[in-house]
Design brief:
- The protein has 371 residues and is of the alpha/beta class.
- It has two domains: 11-158 and 356-370, Rossmann fold; 164-353, Rossmann fold (3-Layer(aba) Sandwich), CATH 3.40.50.
- Helix content is 37%, strand content 16%.
- The strands form two sheets. Strands 3-2-1-4-5-7-6 form a seven-stranded mixed β-sheet, with helices on one face.
- The longest helix is centred in the middle third of the chain and has 16 residues, at 223-238.
- The structure holds 2'-deoxy-thymidine-beta-L-rhamnose.
- 2'-deoxy-thymidine-beta-L-rhamnose (TRH) binds at residues 19-24, 26, 55, 117, 194, 220-222, 255-258, 261, 274-278, 294.
């Protein structure tokens, strides 16, 4: 890891389109806050900021959330130094037209970053840092830089705030659970559930209900809650005795702030996460986890999942659990081999801490264009 060096305070314009779910905004929000924590000024342009009311109720000093409406209000706007288009969204053309030729205090052209999706696939190392000259339109003459987050030193790294270890060291699990009115029985295993609609959900619930170790399942708000409630209703109707000994208890959670979402992952003995941002947070939590990958229509996510499991050195039990959880095969989920899963997570966590985080890399990359 390189030692942090003082960075010039730049003005960043980050563009985010909410396609579905919460990951686009979740990642852009974390990125914005982490830049602001490093002395940068950020304008976050987003077409639907409604989820910030629960994700980040307190806002973040240094981050100005702007409505990305069909026609942007650019009246009196100071030109930004760095433009970030997140996940292939295209920066509003009127913004480019208004800002491309504006003279900045530095006299330099804006740095244009295309921030890509996270993957462990080999193309990430190949493509990270590539450039593409803009040939047409209002931005002609500028250069786009492709920035790929990733899990290895030759990628853009992962979002990780500087005070993470300190926050974790001061975390009091039972006190935090109490704020949600959850009292943990000492013999109970805690499992968080953040997922889409996995076809193996009935199997997981049945497995937990018949396991020797009692489980409290903490189900996140939204799609996970709907999926679990529908399945429980189904089970209660068809097999009323399925959880007779009550080995499985369920708590449905409200929407949590990102800070409390982290707390949830730190509190649990197993985390079921999904998408992109919560996967990274599960890695930082350092607890055993299972990933429900965002499904793509042509099954492109199967290769992406496999590359991730290879990178993780997942043992066979964790690999098979993932394949079934993500509908890649129909074999049984298999047992929850938590000690084995904990070991690989610990190793991955340690390795990742040796690498620069995404914001440090991005700042280094951007400032290298400013000298
Ligand atoms: O919501 P997601 O499934 O988002 C997905 C992925 O990012 C996917 O790659 C992308 O293509 C698709 O969206 C459009 O899962 P993800 O990425 O984990 O984002 C969830 C965010 O929501 C994360 O920042 C954590 C946050 N969150 C909370 O802060 N509180 C909560 O209570 C919950 C349930 C989530």
């Amino acid at each position: 890891m390189t030692a942090p060096s003082p960075q010039p305070a730049l003005l960043w314009d980050i563009f985010c389109q909410v396609i579905d779910n919460h990951g686009d905004l979740g990642v852009c929000w974390r990125l914005s806050c982490q830049l602001a924590a490093r002395g940068q000024r950020v304008r976050l342009w987003v077409d639907d900021a409604s989820a910030l009311s629960w994700m980040a109720p307190g806002g973040c000093p240094g981050v100005d959330v702007k409505a990305w409406t069909t026609v942007l209000d650019l009246q009196g706007l100071t030109p930004g130094d760095v433009w970030v288009e997140a996940f292939g969204c295209e920066i509003a053309p009127e913004f480019i037209a208004a800002n491309a030729s504006e003279i900045r205090p530095t006299g330099l052209k804006p740095t244009w970053i295309n921030l890509e999706y996270l993957s462990a696939q080999a193309y990430v190392e190949r493509n990270h840092g590539l450039t593409s000259p803009v040939m047409h339109g209002p931005g002609a003459g500028l250069i786009k830089h492709f920035f790929y987050p990733g899990f290895t030193p030759r990628t853009g790294g992962l979002l990780r705030e500087a005070n993470l270890l300190d926050r974790q060291a001061h975390f009091d699990r039972d006190a935090w659970l109490n704020t949600l009115h959850i009292t943990r029985r000492t013999d109970q295993r805690l499992v968080s559930l953040f997922c889409y609609e996995p076809s193996a959900l009935p199997d997981l619930l049945a497995q937990l209900a018949s396991d020797d170790t009692p489980t409290r399942l903490l189900v996140t708000a939204g799609r996970a809650t709907s999926a679990v409630q529908a399945e429980i209703e189904h089970k209660n109707r068809l097999q009323p005795l399925w959880n007779l000994s009550e080995q499985l208890s369920i708590s449905y959670l409200p929407y949590l702030s990102q800070t409390d979402f982290d707390h949830l992952l730190w509190a649990c003995d197993l985390n079921c996460v999904r998408g992109e941002d919560s996967l990274v947070r599960a890695l930082w939590a350092g607890k055993p986890f299972v990933w429900h990958i965002y499904p793509q229509f042509d099954d492109a996510h199967h290769d992406k999942l496999s590359a991730f499991l290879d990178w993780l050195h997942a043992p066979e039990s964790l690999r098979q659990f993932h394949l079934r959880w993500n509908g890649v095969n129909d074999a049984p989920l298999g047992s929850l081999a938590l000690p084995d899963w904990a070991e690989v997570t610990r190793a991955a966590h340690q390795g990742l801490w040796q690498q620069d985080d995404l914001v440090s890399q991005l700042l280094g990359f951007v400032t290298s264009h400013w000298v």
